[in-house]
Amino acid sequence: MSWLPSLQTKTPEEGFELALKLARMAVKYTQPDAAIRDTLRTEYERNADSLTMASHVVATHFQTVAKANDYWK
Amino acid sequence: MSWLPSLQTKTPEEGFELALKLARMAVKYTQPDAAIRDTLRTEYERNADSLTMASHVVATHFQTVAKANDYWK
Amino acid sequence: MSWLPSLQTKTPEEGFELALKLARMAVKYTQPDAAIRDTLRTEYERNADSLTMASHVVATHFQTVAKANDYWK
Amino acid sequence: MSWLPSLQTKTPEEGFELALKLARMAVKYTQPDAAIRDTLRTEYERNADSLTMASHVVATHFQTVAKANDYWK
Amino acid sequence: MSWLPSLQTKTPEEGFELALKLARMAVKYTQPDAAIRDTLRTEYERNADSLTMASHVVATHFQTVAKANDYWK
Amino acid sequence: MSWLPSLQTKTPEEGFELALKLARMAVKYTQPDAAIRDTLRTEYERNADSLTMASHVVATHFQTVAKANDYWK
Question: The pTM is what?
Answer without folding.
Answer: 0.98
